[in-house]
Specification:
5-stranded parallel β-sheet, alpha/beta, globular
């Protein structure tokens, strides 16, 4: 699959994180869209075609990733889309907590770009 055919949705309340991730992914020929809140991300998932994967910040105000991921997984429009937890929480048990919330995989911040690219290749094949 051409990496540009499926969009990567980045949901993060920090515009600098979105900018950095988007820049790296676009340089690798991924098409990126973004949302500054989980509720905005859920709306994009319902109304945007060809989203292939979601990169979800787990710690956001109003609705965090732990609340948003189950909503994504239960929504008929987005249930099959993989969600990768991207979080600064890197203590023992944090990965398991993200996976228990429904994340398909986990990457801690600062993001290891090579690991993220491996995950994207695996899920967007």
């Amino acid at each position: 699959m051409n990496t540009a055919t499926k969009k990567v949705l980045i949901i993060d309340d920090d515009g600098k994180n979105i900018f950095a991730l988007s820049a790296v992914l676009r340089s690798m020929r991924y098409s990126c869209i973004s949302a500054l809140s989980a509720s905005e991300g859920l709306e994009l998932l319902r109304n945007t075609q060809d989203i292939g994967i979601v990169l979800m910040d787990m710690m956001m105000p109003e609705m965090d990733g732990y609340t948003a991921i189950p909503k994504i997984k239960l929504d008929k429009y987005s249930a099959g889309i993989p969600v990768i937890a991207i979080t600064a929480q890197a203590m023992p048990g944090d990965k398991e907590r993200c996976l228990a919330a429904g994340a398909d995989d986990y990457v801690s911040k600062p993001v290891d770009v090579d690991k993220l690219l491996e995950i994207l290749k695996a899920y967007l094949k």
